[in-house]
């Protein structure tokens, strides 16, 4: 294995874990409290510094996800899903602090091992909150016009995510 291999994100494992977890549900939005409980984690909302999205604490068997209470519900949901991604995918430190993770981090050549974990946690969050299978059914069966702002807003709110996160997800899945 070369150094370049080690800094490349891996998406397959996260996608499989997310697919297993969404079997708990028949439709969106995914209940993150139930997912957290299933994974033995507690979710807490606290007042945090504005630039801190979330914190993942691991102490023996205890796992606590702290999310910034001043962020929008959609952003809190993405943060929780992102921290669940770290919990499921990365061994990590006892305390992991996320300061506005870089969603658009794409330059693999300059990615550090830490960047790779952030990319993987974001990919897991997208797979968990906006499962490709559900989106495909919604978009194809209900003929949602993705150029219509109202339709995009309705789709995002059905999944409990921001319109921006939904637009990014649909582009990543090549719907747009
Ligand atoms: Zn992170």
UniProtKB/TrEMBL annotation:
This is ImmA/IrrE family metallo-endopeptidase. Residues 49-170 form the IrrE N-terminal-like domain. Transmembrane segments: none annotated. Signal peptide: none annotated.
């Amino acid at each position: 294995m070369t150094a370049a291999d080690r800094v490349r994100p891996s998406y397959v494992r996260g996608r499989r874990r997310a697919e297993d977890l969404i079997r708990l549900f028949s439709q969106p939005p995914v209940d993150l409290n139930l997912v957290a409980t299933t994974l033995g984690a507690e979710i807490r909302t606290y007042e945090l510094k504005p630039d801190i999205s979330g914190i993942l604490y691991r102490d023996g068997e205890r796992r606590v996800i702290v999310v910034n209470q001043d962020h929008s519900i959609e952003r809190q949901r993405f943060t929780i899903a992102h921290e669940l991604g770290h919990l499921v995918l990365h061994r990590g430190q006892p305390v992991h602090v996320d300061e506005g993770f870089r969603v658009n981090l794409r330059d693999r050549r300059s990615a550090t091992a830490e960047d790779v974990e952030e990319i993987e946690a974001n990919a897991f969050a997208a797979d968990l909150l906006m499962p490709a299978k559900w989106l495909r059914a919604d978009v194809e069966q209900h003929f949602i016009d993705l150029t219509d702002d109202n339709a995009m807003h309705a789709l995002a709110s059905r999944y409990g995510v921001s319109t921006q996160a939904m637009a990014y997800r649909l582009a990543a899945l090549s719907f747009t």
